[in-house]
């Protein structure tokens, strides 16, 4: 028997979710719409975005679904996105930072950032900070960021030159670094928002069978992905913790935590719990984005 979903749980709430056109993001958006939220889907590709919107409305005929297009790998686009959100919505009740990439060969954006660092972390840092006025206007709001257990292999490199160095680059290490950054950012954000009505939490969705690894990924990532595939969960199942953190009443006042299987979980890296490291990352991120 399917679990009961209260279609009024999020009635009147507005939720912005990045990376919504497929995988975990799509199923998170669909189920939050099923709970009554007005969904704002942030997607990179117009055709995939429209397909996701249509599928959500087909599954939830009464759903209110808006689409905003943005390539989050460019910070100028993130600024434009935040400005557009500010023009359209007086408040945001939930921000779900879901978009992410698993990089292949080293790619440096036209703004000078390594692709996974800017997409998985800097865009999250920038968008969240730029949308704080809308989140604060909601009175009680939530920031949910999709991280990963891969954080345990991550390190925070202060030098952009080192991150961008082809001789030192590892796509797997770059991904792990960005996931550690997600957790440290969440911890520092929760600390800074302690006296507000905004909470911040992050999560590991599980090892999810998505398109994160692609033909451009390194042979090591492809090999590891292939070996792990029998143990992977579906994107629909992988979305459950994001849905829980965005909607469950029991975590309305919980902040600064890392979740797995919809429960608080132990962080695998001591660095992920280091307040000094979190503060250092914030300073690096502020310098590289010009925000915060």
UniProtKB/TrEMBL annotation:
Xref: Pfam families: adh_short
Entries under InterPro entries matching the protein: NAD(P)-bd_dom_sf, SDR_fam
Superkingdom classification of source: Bacteria
Keywords (A to Z) from UniProt: Oxidoreductase
Keyword DNA-binding in annotation: no
Entry keyword annotation includes Oxidoreductase: yes
Name this protein carries in UniProt: SDR family oxidoreductase
Organism the protein comes from: Hymenobacter fastidiosus
């Amino acid at each position: 028997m399917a679990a009961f979903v209260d279609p009024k749980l999020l009635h009147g709430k507005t939720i912005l979710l990045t990376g919504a056109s497929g995988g975990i993001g799509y199923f998170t958006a669909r189920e939050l719409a099923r709970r009554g939220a007005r969904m704002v889907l942030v997607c990179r590709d117009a055709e995939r975005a429209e397909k996701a919107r249509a599928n959500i409305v087909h599954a939830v005929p009464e759903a209110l679904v808006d689409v905003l297009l943005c390539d989050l790998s460019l910070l100028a686009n993130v600024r434009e996105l935040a400005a557009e959100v500010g023009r359209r919505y007086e408040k945001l009740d939930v921000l779900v930072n879901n978009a992410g990439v698993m990089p292949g060969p080293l790619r440096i954006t036209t703004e000078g950032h390594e692709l996974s660092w800017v997409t998985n972390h800097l865009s999250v840092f920038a968008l969240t900070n730029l949308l704080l006025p809308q989140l604060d206007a909601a009175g009680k709001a939530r920031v949910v960021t999709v991280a990963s257990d891969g954080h345990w292999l991550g390190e925070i490199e202060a030098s952009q030159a080192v991150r961008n160095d082809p001789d030192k680059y590892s796509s797997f290490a770059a991904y792990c670094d960005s996931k550690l950054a997600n957790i440290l950012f969440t911890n520092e954000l929760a600390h800074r928002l302690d006296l507000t009505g905004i909470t911040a939490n992050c999560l590991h969705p599980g090892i999810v069978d998505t398109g994160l690894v692609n033909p451009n990924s390194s042979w090591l990532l492809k090999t590891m992905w292939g070996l792990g595939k029998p143990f992977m969960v579906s994107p629909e199942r992988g979305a459950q913790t994001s849905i829980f953190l965005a909607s469950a009443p029991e975590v309305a006042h919980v902040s600064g935590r890392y979740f797995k299987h919809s429960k608080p979980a132990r962080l695998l890296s001591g660095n992920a719990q280091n307040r000094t490291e979190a503060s250092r990352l914030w300073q690096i991120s502020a310098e590289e984005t010009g925000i915060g």
